[in-house]
Amino acid sequence: MKKVPIKELREDLKEELKEELVSDSEILDKQTMGEEMYHKLEIRRDVKDSIVVIIASILYAINVNVFVNAGNLLPGGATGISLLLQHICRTFLHISVPYSLFSILLNAVPATICYRVVGKKYTLRSVLCIFVMSIAVDMIPSHFITDDLLLIAIFGGIINGVLIALILNSHATSGGTDFISMIISKKKGISVWNYIFMGNVAVLLIAGCIYGMNVALYSIIFQYASTQMINMMYKRYDKDTLFIITKKPDEVYNIILKKTNHDATLFKGVGCYKNEEKAMLYSVVNSDATRVVIMDIKKEDPDAFINYFGSKGIRGKFYYQEEE
């Protein structure tokens, strides 16, 4: 099977990109669209992301007051430390300190580092999330819906993970260890949520020696459920490998490039059964774009044969859209 380089993106595709509205699954690129359209799309995306962040932050605060406080759980990260410090002040010092005070102070340094390393808009949306979440935790009253600690840990963790994933997919973080995970992910190009989970487990076990292992173990269940939901819903640093056999290699390549900003390699060969010439494209893309890419390829070429699977690791240059 002979390997040949794929032809460069045609000028007509560049003109087409300037005329079309770009969805969230496509890459916003000043080089492939007009300056004015780029800024309009950027503003629209920023507004949408900010609205999602605000809503998710309020729901996160409700989850803290309904599930976490109901079971006296320690959710880990800045949220867990803030709740722990609040509990210490109330129990031993007999003073009531707002959750928001501890939360904002604990997130100040990570936010500053994130501002320098990740991006300005990303950090500002994260700060918005932290402020809304912190104030909402103080303002929204606690409400107990069950006294079953296992149900609290499982469902509270699932809801926690879903909300954090929504915030992450809106180009922000909920603060604390999320800042750390994003900084490491940006540097290494990998998902580190399982490592964050193990770090939280270590902290929870230490806290369990002080406050009781029963609460610590249920808190670990909460963290595990939350981490699994994040891994399931947040795919920025996951990668999929695509092998596509098609009669329209140029059109398929244009779809891959337009939707993901990733390149592809073209192989030409012969199908063994019918002895027909075949074109096969090989590409590695971000997992969150795989579904859209496959749908568009099947629209363009219904007879295309597509084999895709998760890529455990790659070595070499791989494009990630920079956070702003």
Q: Which helices and strands occur, and which strands form pairs?
A:
Layout: E1 2-4, H1 11-19, H2 35-68, H3 77-91, H4 99-117, H5 120-139, H6 149-169, H7 177-188, H8 193-211, H9 213-233, E2 239-246, H10 249-260, E3 265-270, E4 277-286, H11 287-300, E5 305-311
Antiparallel strand pairs: 1-3, 2-4, 2-5, 3-4
Helix pairs in contact: 2-5, 2-6, 3-4, 4-5, 4-7, 6-9, 8-9, 10-11
Subcellular location: Cell membrane
Membrane topology: Multi-pass membrane protein
Transmembrane segments: 50-71, 91-115, 127-145, 151-171, 192-213
Account of the 3D structure:
The chain has 324 residues and is an alpha+beta fold. It has helices at 11-19, 35-68, 77-91, 99-117, 120-139, 149-169, 177-188, 193-211, 213-233, 249-260, 287-300; strands spanning 2-4, 239-246, 265-270, 277-286, 305-311. The chain has a five-stranded antiparallel sheet. The model is unreliable at 1-25 (pLDDT under 50). The longest helix has 34 residues, at 35-68. The chain has two domains: 2-27 and 238-311, 2-Layer Sandwich (Alpha-Beta Plaits); 40-233, no CATH class. Helix 4 (99-117) runs antiparallel to helix 5 (120-139) and helix 6 (149-169) packs parallel to helix 9. It is found in: Cell membrane. One of its GO terms (cellular component) is plasma membrane. Its main location: membrane.
Structural category: alpha+beta
Strand order of the largest sheet: 1-3-4-2-5
Q: What is the radius of gyration?
A: 23 Å
Largest sheet: 5 strands, antiparallel
Overall body shape? elongated
* Average of per-residue pLDDT values: 84
**Secondary-structure element sequence?**
EHHHHHHHHHEHEEHE
Number of domains: 2
List segments where confidence is low: pLDDT < 50 over at least 5 consecutive residues: 1-25
Percent helix among the residues?
A: 55-70%
Strand content: 5-15%
Question: In angstroms, what separates the terminal alpha carbons?
Answer: 42 Å
Number of helices: 11
Instruction: Indicate the multimeric state.
Output: single chain
Number of strands: 5
